[in-house]
Amino acid sequence: MRYLVLAFILCFSLSANAQILNAESLRKVTDTSGWSGSVSLNFALKRNTKDFLTISNHIHLQYKMNKHLVLFKNDIAFQKIEGDKFENGGISHLRYNYRFHPRIAWEVFTQGQYNKISLIDFRGLLGTGPRFKLTTSENYKFYLGTLVMYEHEEIADGVTPIQRDVRGSAYLSFSMYPTETITIVSTTYYQPKFSQFSDYRISSQSSLLIDLFKNFAFKTSYTFTYDIFPAVGIPNSQYNFTTGITYSFD
Predict the structure, then answer these.
(1) CATH topology of domain 2-249
(2) pLDDT of 33 strictly over 80
(3) Lowest CB count within 10 Å: 28, 63, 85, 245, which one?
(4) 225 with 189: CB under 8 angstroms?
């Protein structure tokens, strides 16, 4: 229960830096029911219109029981732009999975985020759809998700009006476990606006985790995002490279 209380406190007191959150990075592989999760501290070098130094903290909680899975993610990031003051961005994500077939689950999620660097005052999402497991091997796993989501977005560029749209969110993800101490996870998202398919976002994230010792791992991730219609003055493509230490618990 104390983990649940902590999660909701953080949800309102902290907030990620990514344009599209990689939900696959939330999933902690475990055979046991109950609570599990992780905490990490990362440093990042990022570029869009300028160079950025980012310090970020990520907290992930997961509750698993039989066919039910609840995921909570809360991130906060502080960015310094070429010697200027630090600015912050944040994201909170809550997702529920119900596995009604060994290889099919139904997902429902909600998400809120802001990012001063990308001029996003607020972006709220509410979505649902099926998730398919494409493989049966435990050493490598492929998943396909096809979701529909409602998006409310407020941009601080002084030009873009408030956006209220319905988008698709299709993703292809794989997880590989080449050794007992190494995990590789990669996910690519495609999110078009249903009323205008030429308005879309693409995001790809790949992560490498190496176990150091009990409950601690080294993690490095590379994220690339492309938004066909970003805020005025923000480039279409951005990248983010992070590395740090992750603590996991069961």
Answers:
(1) Porin (2.40.160)
(2) no
(3) 85
(4) no
